[in-house]
Amino acid sequence: MSQMFNTGVRWTIHDVELFAENEGTRYEIVDGELFMTRAPHFKHQQTCGKIFQQLNIWSESTGLGEAVINPGVLFSESDNVIPDVVWATKETLALTLDEA
Prior knowledge:
- This protein is an alpha+beta fold.
- The chain has one domain: tt1808, chain A, CATH 3.90.1570.10.
- It has three helices and seven strands; from the N terminus they run E-H-E-E-H-E-E-E-E-H.
- A hairpin with a 2-residue loop joins strand 5 and strand 6.
- It is globular and about 45 Å long.
């Protein structure tokens, strides 16, 4: 379950960086709106793990890209999300990965 904070403020990644570390809470920004969610339940995580495993096996056999679990994805300062599983081509990864 997610909770949206509709304050009239356009949130950015810089605002979220100021929050105290809160174990088990995920903050995501979609089009400047802040969403707060708890960590997903066991069954959800298990399903994500199975999806990742299959994508990873396929990726390793084809060499076309990589699968990642829970990456932070920063599209812009006001769009920052944490998808459960992501697959990207090697070309896309080379263009988008940061140094961290």
